[in-house]
Structures are given as structure tokens and as C-alpha cells.
Amino acid sequence: DAPRLHPLTRVPPWPVHNELEAVAGAVLSQGALGASAGTVAAAGCNVTVGAAEETPLDDGAVVSVSVRCAAPASTHWLAAYSPPRANVTAQAPTKYAILSKVNSSYPQTGEASVHFSLTAARAGFDFVLFAADPLAPHVSEALARSEVVDFADADAPLRPRAVFLPGGRLGVAWSSGRGEEHAPTLGWRVEGSDEWTEVDANTSTYSAVDMCGGVAGGLGWRDPGYVHVAAIEGAPAGVSLDIRLSDDTGATYDAPTALRVPPAPGSEGTRLALFADMGRGDTDDAHTWMEYGPPAVNVSAALAADGPFDASFLSGDLSYAQGFASVWDDWLRMIEQFASAAPLLANLGNHEYDAPAQSWPAGRRRDLFFGEDSGGECGVAAAAQVPTPRVGVDQAWWAHAVGNVMIVSMNTEVDFACGSAQWRWLQKTLAGINRTETPWVLFGGHRPGLIDSTYDRAAECCGYGRVPPHCLAPPDCKLPGEDPSDAGVMASLQKEIGPLLEYYDVDFALWGHNHVYQRHCAYARGQCVRKSGAGGVYDGSSDVTAGDAGVVHLVVGAAGATLTKNACGAAFSEKVHNTWGYVRVVAHNATHLSGEFVEAKAGPGGRVLDTFALVRPSTPREKPTSRAPYCAGDACVCDYVEERPEALIDCIGGGGGEDDSTGELVPIIIGAVIVLVATAAGVYGAMRLVRRRRARAYGAIDDSAGDLDAAAAALGVDGVDARTVNPLAVPADES
């Protein structure tokens, strides 16, 4: 995905040229800019870092970068590179800022000052000034490069995140630039105590050859350093722990918040935070490279303020790095306040896992859909950066008890059909849950098992007149993999996984993928078996026929990613909110659980937009039939009923949901629209109109703005994602 080389890039070819040497046709190389700082004389521009005299810097330091240029233009942009002196034709920046968006007078004065918040990630920084060519938007001119700024210790241990490890153990993961030879160590003590316990860490890393091609192994690659993991054993449940990271160089780092040890299995009052589809934003003048989901800054802050929880569950689509490795470092810094205070559980979504069929190495478990959504990461980066109880990246399903709630997670991106390795594991795990100890069962996956959505591949792309511009398949719907539409995946999950959830009495399910909050009825066998009553209460404690309590489905893909507004009023849908936030759940005891959807936005937030409650009988329910789903050898019983109706999205209208998103943008300059120059007006118009490249990743596309086909044709591309390729061209409603 080399078109992501810089914000104004649209179509290949995409080398970065220095037009000072255009006569010779030279492509800019590291040598063309040189290693010197300041002015490139012929360009009449220079870049200086105001805080350079105060270096070395601390992690998160904000530096002021000044630009002066004799021939300024609205298309000038400033990029941050780390490691510094990188070859700009071979490595993507970590952050960027459009000068005319930061200082509106820059095109007239040629002077701008940009504040960059810098993440310490194993290297220092420098800054390069570019000018885009409005007549050839795939070309950008490098004008000047700043001096280098360094950190006091860029390799220091940082980014603690509490995790659950296989075997039910609590642990802490962190990152650094130093390997196991430097004895990475976790220290913990009960808050208020003077006695530290030190634990040696296990250390791992990954390399570019582990990627599945794409930008992850090329333009977006950046050395991830090392991930260290150490277990905490012997700490009493419910206490708060001070956390300290160290190594043999003398470097230490104290976690910013105390870690609350989760309650023991069976404990009542378990408090969970549930969300999905996060992304990354910042509060300085710049944008994270490949920035997606800037409201995640507000969600992160809200989770930290509302905590500590006993655990957080992020159900897929974590950082949206999509192959640009530096985004993982920025995302880990963003979530540190809440992720270090309570264990973070996560599963893999399409933006962590999916890759084209031909790109998967031999022996890996390929995804079902063969999309390009991970940018070539194919699960490797996410599995390393956020450890979970999973066995490994190719067996990315797990179960873990938190207090009186058992959380069971699947990977919706790989084979889950009856008889598959994942299905067999899920069946055995659900069948073996001790409902006396953990009476509540929460099931999680990324793509929704129940979703109110207009995105139906078969209806939209197969013989219903004009093929919409967001459909990647030809009219005969020959796809590279399985049907990735909301309706298609929902039907598959209800057919293959639904019988397991129903038979083993799963109480509620968490999904993401669609960037919205939705709460649905208690659902079983293709229909609602119970609607919520007053106050959103699902009372299954009495007058419920055995096996007919149903599963209450929540879609909470609202943790920062651009909102997906395509609900159609499905018959099973009870609540829809188009805003960012998370669900706060409390399992009070063995019979009562409550939940709230909490809004998260800039400034005062915390409005509760939806409440619900689940009520269980005091004793486990009877099984609906004696016909249990199971596999014995190659023979499988896939369903507890003889015939199961197909799960359909039966739109009854009026279900677009409440649009709470107006005015809830993060307090940073998003740059929703950029006016290039008159000569680029056609391209600019196309930028505003072209929407998502992958409808399969985000649901149906609202093409009411019209003329998407013409826009795509003007660019010579087919359904380009405007934010992915040019963040400056994102329409205002997607900020």
C-alpha cells in the first residue's frame, strides 16, 4: 500500500522526488537530503526544533518545530521520522502535520510552528518538510530536514499493560529496546508496602519476515524492539499493586497507575469494560501516521477515569496500525493509563489478521476472507503486543474467568465451521464451564453474530441492478474468500456458533466491526425469544422455557473508529447509538447483572445513553434437548435442533439509531478537507467523494453524496479509502 507514502498521495507511481534535481530526474534518497540539518539552500526553507537545546527528551515530550520557507504553499506538510535520518523513499513517517491547517497564515507568511508529542520508541526523531505537486499528487518534494532530537534513554522499559496469561495467571507485559541479555525484570508490591517482589521476564520479538507482505514488511516496517512478559503470583485478590519495570542498565519505570488484582473466580460484583474498534488519536498539532479513530483519545481517558475495572475486553480492531509499525507504539502510549490499571483482554479483528490468500506463509492459519485489512501484519504484531490466554496467533481463541463471569473469545477471521479446530475447542470449553462458580458467561468475537445493518453482499452486489461502487466483487459475486458482508457473516455465525451459545446457555455476547453501539433482543434459532422490558431488563429467571432464554447481543464497535451509520431497523434490534463510548458491566451476584453504554467525548462526558439488565434463575437452566452439539472423531452433531431457520436481517425501517456524534470531536485539528489548488480541483472533488476501499471492513457505504463512480474514475482507482490514502480528504462527517 505504497500510496500511503504521504498525505497527498493518490495513485502510483509514488517516489518522493526532490524537484531541485528534477532536471536530472533523480529520485530523492537519504543522500540527496544529506545528514545536515537546517536549510537546503536552493529551496529557501529550513526546519528547526525549538526544544533541541533541552534534549535529551523524556517520553511524551512536546517539541515545537518551526518552519520558514521563502516560497510557501498550502500543500506543504511536515513529517516526523524515527529513527532519524531515515530514507524517506523507503520508510513512512511516524506523524505528520499540514502546515496550513496548523497555521492558516503559512501560505502567505512562510512561517509556521507545529507542536509534536513524541513517543519514546527505541530511537530519536527528525523532521522533514515536504511540498506536494498539485499536478502530480503522487509526488512530494522534500525541501528541508531538521536536526536530530534524542531521548534520554529511547530503549528504556515502557508501556506496562496488565494481561492474563495461559493458565489463569495475572501478568504484566511491557516494551523496550533491550533484549533478554539485559535481564528485564518486573517489580511489584502491595500499595503502601516497602517489600518488592521481583520477577524475571520472558522476552520475545518479531521481524519483517514474519509479516505477510504488504506495507507491514516494507514501507511501514519499523523495528518493534522487544516485548517482555512476567507473571504475578501470590498477590491477594482485590489489592492494588505498585508496578516497576527495570533492566540491568539501571533503567527503571514506574507504572502511572496502581494495578488492581482481579477478583478470584466466583467472587461477586465483577466490573468489566467492553468495547471494540479503537484506533489512535493525539492531542498535539500532528496526526499519527495512518491515523484512524482519533476519538479513541477520549475513550481511553474515559476508561482511565472510570476505572479501575476488574478487566477490560477489547473485541478486535485494536490500533488500526494496518502495517505501519510505529502506530503500535503510539497506541500503547495512549492506552497506558487504563491498560496498566487492570488486565486488558483482546481478540483479533480483520485489521489485525486478514491478508490476501497468496501472502500467508506455509503453516499459518489463513483467514476466511483474504482481505488486505491488516496491511500484512496477519495477527503477528497484535498477538505479540497484547498477550492473552490464547495458545498462539494461529489458535487465537481463549477463555478466562474474571470473578463470577467466564469470558470466552473466538477468532471470527478463521474457520469456525462445525467440526473445525476452533468449533471443537469452543464446544468443549462452553460445555465445561462451572456455572456455580461463574454463573455468567460472556462470549466475544469481532465480526458480529447479530447486527442491524444494510450491508448484504448478496443483495447489493448480485444482480440487483447497478453494482454499488463499494462492492469489490463483480456482479456474479465471485469473492476471494467467504462472504464478508454483515449479513453474510451473521448468517454463518448463527448457523455454526449459534447452537453452541444457545445450548450452553451463554448470557450475552460482545461484538465489534460495525462502528456503532447496538443492543439486541435475547435471540435464538433465528428469532427473538425475549424482548427487554421496562428499563431494558431481560428477565429470564422464571416463565422461560428451558433453552429459550436466548443470547443478548451487544455490538460495541464505538471505541474511536469512524462511525458506521447503516442500521435499518432490524426486527431484533432494541437500541442503536451513533457515538463513541464503551459498555460498563457489573455482575452483582449469581442472578443479576447490569450494563450501561457510557458516552466518551471531549470535555465533560460520561452520559449513560443506554441501560440494561439480565436476570438469571438461581440454579442453572435445563438443557433445551438431550441432543448436544459435539464431535467424536470425524463425526459431529452441529446443532441441538433438527432444522434451524436462516438468520436474516429483517429490516422494518426507522432503525438508523440516535445520532449522538455531533460536536463530539476530539480537540485536535483533524483536517477534514484540504483545498489543494485550482489545477487540482478535480482530484480534490474526488478525494471528498471517494469513501471506503473495503466495504467488507466497515459495512455499507453511504453514497448519498452521489457520484462515487465518477470520483473513483477521476482518480483512476476503484473505491479508495480517503482516510487511508489521504487523511486530509476525509469528509467532515468522518472526522
Please specify the SSE layout and strand pairing.
Layout: H1 30-33, E1 45-49, E2 62-69, E3 76-81, E4 95-98, H2 99-102, H3 106-109, E5 111-117, E6 126-133, E7 136-145, E8 158-165, E9 169-176, E10 185-190, E11 197-200, E12 202-204, E13 226-232, E14 240-246, E15 252-254, E16 259-260, E17 270-275, E18 287-288, H4 296-306, E19 311-315, H5 326-339, E20 344-347, H6 350-353, H7 380-385, E21 398-402, E22 405-409, H8 421-431, E23 440-444, H9 457-461, H10 486-496, H11 498-503, E24 508-511, E25 517-524, E26 527-530, E27 537-539, E28 551-556, E29 573-578, E30 581-587, E31 592-599, E32 608-615, E33 630-632, E34 635-637, E35 658-659, H12 681-689, H13 695-698, H14 708-715, H15 722-725
Parallel strand pairs: 17-19, 19-20, 22-23, 23-24, 24-28, 27-32, 29-35
Antiparallel strand pairs: 1-2, 2-5, 3-4, 3-6, 4-18, 6-7, 8-9, 9-13, 10-11, 10-14, 12-13, 14-15, 14-16, 17-30, 21-22, 25-26, 25-28, 25-29, 30-31, 31-32, 33-34
User: Termini distance?
Assistant: 22 Å
Shape assignment: globular
Mean pLDDT: 82
The amount of helix comes to 10-25%
Whole-number radius of gyration? 26 Å
| Most strands sheet | 9 strands, mixed
Classify the beta-strand content into a percent band. 25-35%
Strand-pairing-aware structural class: alpha+beta
Spans where pLDDT lies below 50 across 5 or more residues = 1-42, 462-475, 662-735
DSSP, total strands: 35
Provide key terms for this protein.
15 helices, disordered C terminus, disordered N terminus, seven-stranded mixed sheet, 735 residues
